[in-house]
Amino acid sequence: MCTVLLNVWNGPTFAVVHALVSPRMRATATAIVFLVMNLVGQGFGPPAIGLLSDVFASHLFAAGDFQTICHAAQRGAHGAAVWQGPAAAACTQASAQGLRYAMLTMSVIFAWSGLHYFLASRHLARRAAGR
After folding, report:
1. Which of 124, 110, 117 is closest to 11 using CA atoms?
2. Entry's InterPro entries (predicted)?
3. Residue 23: which domain range?
4. CA-based Rg of the chain, rounded to a whole angstrom?
């Protein structure tokens, strides 16, 4: 169900794009929309989640400096993760919780984009009515 609701925006978005351009420009307009969506989604999304994950993990880690203790110790010999023990478990826990909170925080963007879709629909309805 979530996957269906996650993609509900596709139909209305491309219907509006196709309605706003002439028929011979529809393919180009669709390509530009896809390009912008992918640049924003794949270019901004993963780094933003990674940054937020590190920020949340640093705040959730109670055993000291998260960056110094966890990131340096995980490298081990030749980059292999060889670190074990209670501090490793605390780092893993803080990192997992940080990632969870980062992904939940980024889901707020869905509400923000929904608001913009609503505002755009009101504008397009007024435009279609001739106001």
Report:
1. 117
2. MFS_trans_sf
3. 2-129
4. 22
Tokens found for residue 89: 């478990």
Residue 26: count other Cβ atoms within 10 Å of its Cβ.
15
Per-residue pLDDT of the chain (131 residues; tens, 9 = 90+): 778 877 888 888 899 999 989 999 999 999 999 999 999 888 998 999 999 999 999 998 887 787 777 776 555 545 445 567 777 788 889 999 999 999 999 888 888 888 998 999 898 888 877 75
DSSP character at residue 70: I
What is the total count of domains within the chain? 1
To the nearest 10°, report the CA torsion of 32, 17, 7, 49. 40
Place of tokens 């490298």: 75
